[in-house]
From TrEMBL:
Coiled-coil region: none
Higher taxonomy: Bacteria, Pseudomonadati, Pseudomonadota, Alphaproteobacteria, Sphingomonadales
Short name of one Pfam family: HIG_1_N
Annotated ranges, domain HIG1: 1-67
Record-given protein name: HIG1 domain-containing protein
InterPro entries on file: Hypoxia_induced_domain
Keyword terms of this UniProt record: Membrane, Transmembrane, Transmembrane helix
Amino acid sequence: MSAILIIALLVAMGATAYVLVRGVMAMASGKLGNQEQQQQWMRKRVLYQGVAILIAALILILAGAGR
């Protein structure tokens, strides 16, 4: 079970990094002139970050319960 959670955490962290880099690159190139599109990238990043934090917390809770 912990292996599945670790893989899920890595996927969530990768998704967060991807969305962050993609959003920054789009804003730097000027492709995102629209405020709503910029907000969508930020919302996706925050969502993936939250998922990663929840998975990390779950891993820590399960590790503490095993003692």
